[in-house]
Amino acid sequence: MNIVVRPKILVVGAGFAGVECVRRLERKLGPDEADLALVTPFSYQLYLPLLPQVASGVLTPQSIAVSLRRSRRYRTRIIPGGAIGVDVKAKVCVVRKITGEIVNERYDQIVLAPGSVTRTFDIPGLVDHARGMKTLAEAAYVRDHVISQLDIADASHDEAERAARLQFVVVGGGYAGTETAACLQRLTHNAVKRYPRLDPKLIKWHLIDIAPKLMPELGDKLGNSALQILRRRGIEVSLGVSIEKAGPEEVTFTDGRVIPTHTLIWTAGVAASPLIATLGAETIKGRLAVSSEMSLRGHDGVFALGDAAAVPDEAKDVAGAVCPPTAQHAMRQGKHVADNVIASLRGQTMTPYVHKDLGLVVDLGGFDAVSKPLGIELRGLPALVAARGYHWGALRTNVAKARVATNWVLNSLAGDDFVRTGFQSRTPATLRDFEYTNAYLTPEEIRERTQAG
């Protein structure tokens, strides 16, 4: 009897890129053509652009965590864990399961979509005292932390402590940082009405960025509009400024200011997952250098995309241009790389990825927003409709769309709630605790494992 061994396709990462790739493979590959496996610590796809709204309580965490097991075509084996190394010569991916067990997963074709981690710098105290906005757990924790500062300040008789508890610092003038500062400032502005012992004037939000402009991708006009909205709300925006050092009760800016605070939120960009460094291949600013087809040159059956890959941007007539690490590109790259994987399996010709950016949307909470869909500059309610319409349409399942729409309607009618759940209240939950960037193997350790196995 002849035993047919099907090729194994291993997808790493359940972000926009990885999930879109898996879903397309499930739809277009017959069950007898290949075995599919997905490496991810969580069996859901997180809709990252809406994390600031989870942190501010507008949306519940479950509403933007889309289950991977709801698909009717679902037949992918989920490996619950994180990839910590890849040996492209041996065609082995080393995975640390959520139990702590380390296993070797062999593959014939691998799609690397591990995403990114928060980009940090060698700033004293940063990873020990800053909090991020990259995971669902971080967003839920930040919400609890911010509300707890109001509770502690309200109960305190120490004026200095009260003032420090009511100062909040957000670093990063990109979309994540701007939306985080805007949404959380709105939360504290509304919440303080329930704290009659607190002076609203003591609540101060700082948004800083080393860049000279806020969200420069939006252009000068919309960037300035967003800046004016934030300053009108009382958020102190400082550009050309960063953090010199961070402590448990104060933050020192590079312009010499010392801000007494217990809340430092770091959103100053992203860096490719450390998994990419384990391949020992060429990188461009930390992202894996791949072809326009998203394949790794010189290594058969290796593809990479999303935040972790420097995919050439063929839509721009600029030499060396690569696609930015946005959800828009990741989703489309996921579908396209799936087609190229299938073409590779069937002996067909792969095609280059080409996509023209459709624009940007920024939801600043309430009725404030700035958007640039298809190059059209929008402000206020039209911009808000465009922003929320885009996000709503991008959610993958009808269940997720229903939950998000219901949350938006409920929040607009009933207002914010200020319940502190006590999420991880006994743990520090800083960047060091959430990112796990020290969990990856060196190329030498990977070779030792694959050769031994």
Polypeptide structure, described:
- It comes from Streptomyces dioscori.
- Keywords: FAD, Flavoprotein, NAD, Oxidoreductase.
- The structure is a single chain.
- The protein has 453 residues and is α/β, with parallel strands linked by helices.
- The chain has 2 domains: 8-119 and 271-357, 3-Layer(bba) Sandwich (FAD/NAD(P)-binding domain); 136-268 and 416-433, 3-Layer(bba) Sandwich (FAD/NAD(P)-binding domain), CATH 3.50.50.100.
- The protein is 32% helix and 22% strand.
- The protein is built from 12 helices and 24 strands.
- Strand 14 and strand 15 form a beta hairpin.
Strand-pairing-aware structural class: alpha/beta
Number of domains: 2
| Sheet with most strands | 7 strands, mixed
Task: Give the total of beta strands.
Answer: 24
Per CATH, the class of the largest domain reads Alpha Beta
- Strand arrangement across the biggest beta sheet: 7-6-5-2-1-8-20
Secondary structure tally, helices: 12
User: Distance between termini?
Assistant: 29 Å
Taken as a percent bin, the fraction of beta residues is 15-25%
In CATH, the architecture of the largest domain is: 3-Layer(bba) Sandwich
Low-confidence stretches: none
Over the alpha carbons, how many angstroms does the gyration radius reach? 23 Å
Helix amount: 25-40%
Q: From the 3D structure, determine the CATH topology of the largest domain.
A: FAD/NAD(P)-binding domain
The mean pLDDT is 91
